[in-house]
Design a protein that fits this description.
This protein has 3 helices and 4 strands. By secondary structure, it is α+β, with helices and mostly antiparallel strands. The chain has a 4-stranded antiparallel sheet.
């Protein structure tokens, strides 16, 4: 079943621009990962918050992607730029409602 996953990054103001540049080079790999249908990015400059809205074929595909990123050291690479842990939410897509 397809899922929508939101990920919110609250960024440190002094690191926000560098983080956004990192995302520009990182998200093409996300979009090309098995099961990823789409990723949209939304940035709120006043609060330095980046929201990603991801569509996946399944939550298992998204979890495999997260493991791949974690194993590749992504959290260590971005850890200094974020003000706290990313906030993940997973929604089942309900076409029947």
């Amino acid at each position: 079943m397809s899922v929508m996953v939101t990920v919110e990054f609250n960024l440190k103001p002094e690191a926000a621009e560098g983080f956004l540049e990192t995302m520009k080079s990182t998200l093409p790999d996300t979009r090309g990962f098995k099961g990823c249908q789409d990723v949209k990015s939304y940035y709120e400059s006043e609060t330095h918050s980046l929201l990603l809205v991801e569509l996946w074929d399944s939550s298992e595909d998204q979890q495999a992607y997260l493991k791949w990123r974690a194993d590749g050291g992504m959290m260590e690479a971005i850890g200094g730029a974020i003000a706290g842990p990313p906030i993940f939410r997973t929604f089942d897509i309900r076409d029947d409602i």
